[in-house]
Amino acid sequence: MANLNQTTLASAVKTQYESRLLTRALPRLIHGRFGMSARINKFGAYELRRYGSLPLISTPLTEGTTPAEQPAVSLTLITITPLFYGSWIGHTDELEMTVFDPLISEMSAILGEQAGMSLDVILRNDLTNGATKDYSGDQAARANLQAPQHNITYADFVKQVAELESAGALPVDGEDFVAIMHPHTWASLMTDPIFVNMFVQESGEGNPMRSGYVGRILRTKVYVSSNAREYVDGGAGGSDVYSMLFIGRDAYGYVGIAGTTPNLLADSQGPNGRPQTGQTLRPVEIIVKPLGSAGADDPLNQRATVGWKASLGTAILNSAWIRDLEHTNIFSLE
Length: 334
Description:
This protein is an alpha+beta fold. The protein has two domains: about 35-50 and about 75-120 and about 255-315, Major capsid protein gp5 fold (2-Layer Sandwich), CATH 3.30.2400; about 135-250 and about 315-325, hypothetical protein PF0899 fold. The protein contains five helices and 15 strands. It has helices at about 95-100, 105-130, 155-165, 185-190, 195-200, and strands at about 35-40, 45-50, 75-80, 85-90, 130-135, 175-180, 200, 215, 220-225, 230, 240-245, 250-255, 285-290, 305-315, 320-325. The strands form three sheets. Strands 5, 6, 7, 8, 9, 10, 11 and 15 form an eight-stranded mixed sheet that branches. A hairpin with a 2-residue loop joins β8 (about 215) and β9.
């Protein structure tokens, strides 16, 4: 038996290295696409004002008599105060000199993904917490929802659109409202024959499906993201409960401060650095501190860092124009 083999000389046996890095699995980050955005500088908060409407007139004028003056118009102030978020990774000079991968580039991409995901979740949670709540199957609370009897249906979808219309909400883009749902909810609705027959799927050259947009129904554009909110075991009988947002124009807003304002239109990247969904994943500037940048605190140029920092504040501007349908679906018991 030979003494020299792959076990005794394991460190000498090398593995073929593929220079193309694998694409990381990321959801589409879309919760910031449909709100009112602003950037402030030299201020710590952002104020929005909404004036109320006057009551309708049903009494005819009396000849020669001046009608009473109208009451003062109500004024609602909404203040958004951005908070700062960020993280970083340190590395040594030896790692930079010995690792085969393009370290700075790869770490920057990973941190950028973390930034985009973190900010999208913060915004998503603020939206679902502040929206007008409703529950599938005419239930009154999340704890009552149980699959399969309360799985989302076409009727639940119609009700949310009707409520936006009755509240006087305007379409996001002048034509349609927006709905954001989880892929599990999408799969459930596509088993409803009425929904399928009514749904208009987008197709053809240049279609925007890579952005998460899958089509429209009832004056509503439907977007799918695996970052849609899910409450594991949140319903009855251990049923997972999902959120589905229905959004009208000016329903919510978000604000950042100066150069730390995130680009919440960002989305995940695809192969070879190409955007996965038509947007560049750069929600904030990546901060790179090279070896030796610490001066006397790093006398031998041994330490470097890569990080990101962002500021974000969100607010519901009109809760009647954003609705959160909590529901179960065909995956709720898996």
